[in-house]
Amino acid sequence: MKTATGPDTWGTFLTYTGLGSGTLAAWNSFILGADYFESRFPASGLCGGGQHANRLFTVFYLPVNLSVVAGLTYWNTLLSTRTRIRIGLAGSALGLALVPLLGALPPSGLTLAATLGLLCCVGVTDGLTQPALFAEAAQGPPLLTHALVTGTALAGLAACALRVATKALLPPTPRGLAASAAAFFWVATAWVAGCLALYLTRAQRPREGVEETTPGARTPTPASPPPRVELSPSVHGASEEDAEASLLPRGPAPEAVLRSPYLVPLGTAKAGVGEVRATLRTIWRLSLATCLIYTVTLAIFPGVLVEDARAPSGDAGRGWFVVSMMTLFNLGDLAGKGGPTLVPALRWSRQGGILGAVCLRALFIPAFHLAGERHWPGDRLVSQLSAPAGLALCTLGLGFTNGVLTSSAMATAPAHVAPSQAGLAGSIMVLSLDVGLVLGAALSFLWLL
């Protein structure tokens, strides 16, 4: 048996990191391509005269995504997680590929409507993929969930780097902007398609425990049960200290886990409505914490940075300033989400402690308001430099706390329920995250007042 720190462990970690990056690649692509869409549809009433494209995209994407996640969490026996992931990744890749094809058509109200309809479809496909992947990861060691959330942060950072590269390599003209956006979306398409290929080739699971054993293989009997990995304490009588201990790797390494049958096999959805309620009662503090994390984050990011913060060089440098701030946020988010894998002190497991820390993040709202203030007392040069520096520090802090608290909550939730409910706990946490995104997006409109 390989050790928990052997090559199989890191190979599995990298696999799930790659899969996690695919869950948000489509959404990140639309958000980071907002400057292209604003330039393409400058006079459209739907785009508010070419402004607020990010908020427009949020309105069309998040409610659809939330509805799909909520529906599949409630009616969780409708589709297996394997089917959701396959359809979701394939659909997201197709949706991204259609964006540059629509870009070849003349801009009009019809092409804008088609673009927004395409965004809604991406919301559906992402809603299929996200909870299904977290449900599968939740049935393995916490390392797999940490890998997924690290992948989501990596997706944002990689998308920012790609957008910077495509903007820098082409001239800042309408034609150059269109060409850079087309290249950006084609690379994003290949990225998601690669995640689908990765899932199909490396992350396949047995269909029903020993259902796919080779001919002549011995079928497990009650006297010789299939191997199981104990990942979390029972729901009944488990203390938070027990849950914290359960976060440490034990049993076979993740690669061996992928090859062994589970009590509830990966790639299936078994829970009923009663189990959804019972699981939610057990992890409600982590569910609420995840919701509040993204309520605060989306109330600020990316709307305030993209549309309300002003660049030091004025409107001429606004595009690069926005991309720089978004890159800084994603750097902090990646450090926060990847940190718990390497730094044990960042692995929080107490539900109350996580919820308390999340509530303190509400202080970022007045902090961003003060950081964006342009009329600082004192020297004018200091006033001009203080706002960007303050915004940069707040953005980095917002990203880091978003990452470390998300990673802690998402990885801890399955440890507080029985192994048979771990996958359901993962789906509930994704639903809580989506609810927070919608609430935060709604609050972000208050910055326009």
UniProtKB/TrEMBL annotation:
Segments traversing the membrane: 56-75, 87-106, 112-135, 147-165, 177-200, 286-306, 318-336, 389-411, 423-448
Keywords annotated in UniProt: Membrane, Transmembrane, Transmembrane helix, Transport
Broad class of where this protein is predominantly found: membrane
Residue segments, region Disordered: 207-250
Entry's localization field: Membrane
GO cellular component: plasma membrane
The UniProt record lists the keyword Membrane: yes
Source organism superkingdom: Eukaryota
Bilayer topology annotation: Multi-pass membrane protein
Any one GO MF annotation of this record: nucleoside transmembrane transporter activity
Presence of the UniProt keyword Zinc-finger in the record: no
Pfam families found in the cross-reference section: Nucleoside_tran
Family: Belongs to the SLC29A/ENT transporter (TC 2.A.57) family.
Protein name, per record: Equilibrative nucleoside transporter 4
Gene source species: Auxenochlorella protothecoides (Green microalga)
Lineage, opening ranks: Eukaryota, Viridiplantae, Chlorophyta, core chlorophytes, Trebouxiophyceae
